[in-house]
Structures are given as structure tokens and as C-alpha cells.
Fold this protein.
Amino acid sequence: MIFAIDYFTHKDDELSNFKLKLLLNIEDLNNAIFNEVFNSLKPHQKGQYLVYKASEEAQKYQRERNKTLPYVDFSNLPEVLDDNLLQKVMKYQKDGEVRRAVFDALSEDHKTQISQLENKKYEEEKAKRRALMTEEEKRREKEWWDKYDADPKPRFMGNLFEPATVYEYILKYGVDPRNGNPETGESFQKKYTYNSNGEIIPREKKEE
């Protein structure tokens, strides 16, 4: 299953700027899946992408992206990422249109490595922050976490732990992590879509 296709199966109208960038990144960074993703588009969406790809806007975006991100050959990743390569791959996790473009190129072991490093960084930042907190702030924080832990509803922790997205969480657990309600991938797609920033919005809500 190619997860990237799901971002293009929700609407029949024009592709948002986010999705155009996502397609461009898939073609540039994860070309092995590009044809299958491209062929899932409607004819007018294919035409829209080809026009965008040839535009100065797209070329400027590519130049800025390539200047910011280190080179990584996502078509030939080793089974285990060494520290240097892992740090490079981590830089691709910051922006949604880049992160989602390379997601299908990563194995479960790669995603575990990324999650472990993100969790390590999170814990380090948390320790630094706590060192600067007053006793009163620590007490309030403990009260908040006690209340949080007592709530039986599942919580979505983003990229700190797998799954990395709401949709992946639903596919794995059959529950929407945002509200704890039972959900399937099919029912989620019928009710929600993505806006131009890649954020989940109800289908009946007009995309801004």
C-alpha cells in the first residue's frame, strides 16, 4: 500500500498548493512511487501538476528545498541508518509536504529509529525546560499529567511514537486518536479531507 496516494483521493477539484508541492517532492525524492501516485489523479489534476512543475514557482521551490535539505538517496537506504544518515533523514521530517513524500520510502525499522531519536530529543528538551521551572510550575504540571493519565481515551502523540499520522493511527487501531471514537480508513476518507496546508478538515467545510 502506498500511503501517499491517500492524499490525492479525497477530492475531484483542483490540487492545492500543498498537494502540488507534495507531488513534486514525490517525483524528486521518492520517484519509485511517483507513477502510481500520478496515475491515481484525475486527468485535469495531472494537467495541473504538469503546468505547476514547469513553472518558475516550482523551480524556485526546488532550489530552496535542495539548498535547505542534505542529499539523501531514498531509493537506496540501508536497512539500518547510521547516525549521520539518520540525522539527515530527520531534516526531512520537519515539513509536511516533504515528510509525506518520503514516508513510503522508509521501512518500519527506519520509522522506529526516527521515533526513538525524536523521543530522545523530546526528553532532553523536557529535562532542560523542567530545570528552569519553579516548584509551583512543577506542581501544576504534575496535576495536569495526573488528570491526563486518568483519562481512558487514547491520545495521538504525533511523531513521538508510531503511527506518525492520524490516518495511520486509524488504520492500525481502528480509533480516531483525536476523540477516541471508532473509525476505519474508509469512513475517515468519507468524512474528512485535507486543506491546502495538509490539515484535516470535514468534507463539508470548504477548503480555504
